[in-house]
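Run folding on both entries below.
>entry_1
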Amino acid sequence: IFEQGNIRYLAIDAALDAPSAVSVQGETIALADFYNHRIILMKNGAVSQIGQEGRTDGLLYYPTDVELVGDKVIVADAYNNRVQIFDQDGSFQKVIGWREDIKVATGLEVFEDKIFVTDYYGNRVLVYDFDGVLLQIFEGEFNKPTDVLVRSGKLYVTNYGENSISVFVRL
């Protein structure tokens, strides 16, 4: 942690195996722990876990990304081919993306009231509202997209398959 010119280390009392993403909201930190099939949540000095290995709602199978938004923890549940939403106490709330046959959910971006999801083998980016309603699909420009970012009216998508970044100017 770099703060006011000083560096200090964040001690995590959990054995991580391939941390794949981090999200910070105020003093709350969420880490996607890929091979341990869980999200580590650090809040007010306490460490808790969301999820464990499995295929049913509330369980995770290789989480690749995590976003903290308000009281929600949004998880790209890669090989369950979906996005899951939990509250910060770890209670399962809903699944997003199962109707659209996501191949592998790899990256997330929450922008305003939308959730952007990269679909690695589907070669697309899906956009949902918080109720899980599909709003838009971007496709035809990607080769194994792994992550997504929205800034200043532009959509940036990393493409693992061709070592590139796709940029959409108007959203």
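>entry_2
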Amino acid sequence: MTDLAGKYAVVTGASQGIGQSIAAALYDAGVGLVLLGRSRERLEASIGYISSAAETPTPRLVEADLLDTDSLEAAAEEIVADLPTVDILINCGGAYLRGEWDGPNPDIFSSLMTANVVGPYALTRLLLPKLVEASGDVVFVNSSIVRSQGTGASHYKATQHALQAVSDSLRSEFNDRGVRVLSIHPGRTATPRQEYIY
């Protein structure tokens, strides 16, 4: 396994579930972290779960909303100014809404698309120069729903297909510039989101 000690990672969705577990694993490997989320209070609460290795600096917290590109721009400026490099970007934040075709209205669908696709795209684009400079890694935490029929969750499934297209195109354009791009597709996992779904 590659030695990650001394590298720096930005993690969205780190206040709970899969994102929090990824952040904790990176922290234990000696990675300096920036945790990005909408609620500073929830990010602060996650510090106790993540911070178990005393020799690694306490994670930095940056407030930003995937639905608000202005806040993402401000967050990216703060991250670039504060970190010597950005080696890893974990796009794990997003939103979920279950509903039939005739359920959620187009405004809700648009909100899901912004949180799950436009937000991660915008943040990745803003941090891409630093990732290229570091020959870094970008990880998109997608969903196994793209491999299923997605009955009752067509709106969410559509956003995950779009996110896959974003990651595929990023890989094809930037892999030869040293940026590695990975999509992972977890199935049902014991997280607060899963409790909400079921």
